[in-house]
Amino acid sequence: MVTRQFPKPAELLELMQFKKPELDARKRRLDAALTIYDLRTIAKRRTPKAAFDYTDGAAEGELSLARARQAFEDVEFHPDVLRPAESVDLSTEILGGPSAMPFGIAPTGFTRLMQTEGETAGAGAAGAAGIPFTLSTLGTTSIEGVKAANPNGRNWFQLYVMRDREISYGLARRAAAAGFDTLQFTVDTPVAGARLRDKRNGFSIPPQLTLGTIINAIPRPWWWYDFLTTPKLEFASLSTTGGTVGELLDAAMDPTISYDDLAIIRDIWPGKIVVKGVQNVADSKRLIDAGVDGIILSNHGGRQLDRAPIPFRLLPDVVREVGRDATVMVDTGIMNGADIVASIALGAKFTLIGRAYLYGLMAGGRQGVDRTIAILRSEIERTMKLLGVSSIAELEPRHVTQLQRLVPVSAPVAAAASAASAPRAARSAGGTAAKTAASSAGKADAAAPRAAKPAASRAKA
Ligand SMILES: Cc1cc2nc3c(=O)[nH]c(=O)nc-3n(C[C@H](O)[C@H](O)[C@H](O)COP(=O)(O)O)c2cc1C
């Protein structure tokens, strides 16, 4: 039997404590996003289909990306109990410098397409949060513009080595002069992956207006207002002749890049060099032996070879092979701070986020990127506290089990050809030896004729 009474006015009043409404629509929108997937939903609503799909999409059937995200979801954490973790320290050291959290922003091409603030928002937000920002060769803000947006923080530069080598070398020299401390040499793009969404959308650079794009623009007036009232959208470091992203990549990339290029870049670049896009244990070992400062296990966010190995899954084997002291980083599929915690526990020194940052950018410019970082920070912090861990260094493999879904029928044959094709730089131990190998083999000279290519071919890149 329930006893009933008249509601008391004082109690009713207590229930009616309405919060002051948030008048800033952008803040209201962003505060309502509790996860990176929430930011993705807002981003989709606010961004024209072709630009959203260019960002959100991957290659072919998009299996690599889906598998990478699934692998993070298939993690089981093992917490310790009765271990006080009232405050947690998320800071770490990476490539000779500090980072306030164990992740940085990955290089992304054509970022002002997603939202007009582009790389400036990313670099500014990264600087404010104390984490590194990476500018892509295919960026839409200049090297100097990124430095101005993040004058006191860490900026990294991602290099595509192009057919016209001198363009790439020139960019590396400019980034070094602007104080960028780390170079990411991307090696997983001998040719462009098949981004089918871009083909289906007729997406090109610069974007072309069609009846479809105009209809799609109607509910997204702010993006178009930004697009039409801000400086022209173009690559800040390259001149192009236009075309689909795939065509541009194919025109610019050189499928013949090799370890010899790595040795040449070593001579040009004074800071740290990491190789991005490493996808097996043998290459990881060879690169670390060749003296690179670090490797990034990555399949380019699933945008290149579909069904490529899942970088997070490679991590334990790679770390076992190269040792826990080597700088192994990982990206692809990170959508939650817990994904970052799991990666660090399994031996990654650092992680990179691509789309998670871009969803924030599309959802709300600089404030949106701040929100991405805040969401990831709180997820990392909470996961660590729940694990009973109070610093990054305390995370260990025993905290994580990767649950198995896709089981290989047999292990891949260890890169048999690798020994035969082992390049000079790889055979010599240590970075200095790699440098010597390249110059004594006259490879710097070999690059010279390419460097002297006429300006016409440059325009094509
Ligand atoms: C829109 C977009 C553009 C990208 N452009 C580049 C690029 O120019 N250079 C590069 O090395 N990687 C590029 N990447 C790959 C990212 O650096 C990173 O490896 C990938 O996004 C990680 O996966 P995630 O998006 O699931 O975090 C791009 C990724 C996206 C989503």
TrEMBL record:
Keywords: Flavoprotein, FMN, Oxidoreductase. Glyoxylate binds at Y54, Y160, R195, H300, R303. The keyword Phosphoprotein does not apply. The lineage of its organism: Bacteria, Bacillati, Actinomycetota, Actinomycetes, Micrococcales. This is L-lactate dehydrogenase (Cytochrome). It comes from the Bacteria. Belongs to the FMN-dependent alpha-hydroxy acid dehydrogenase family. Residues 421-461 are annotated as: Disordered. Its cofactor is FMN. Residues 28-405 form the FMN hydroxy acid dehydrogenase domain. It comes from Microbacterium kyungheense. SUPFAM superfamilies: FMN-linked oxidoreductases (SSF51395). It holds the Pfam family FMN_dh.
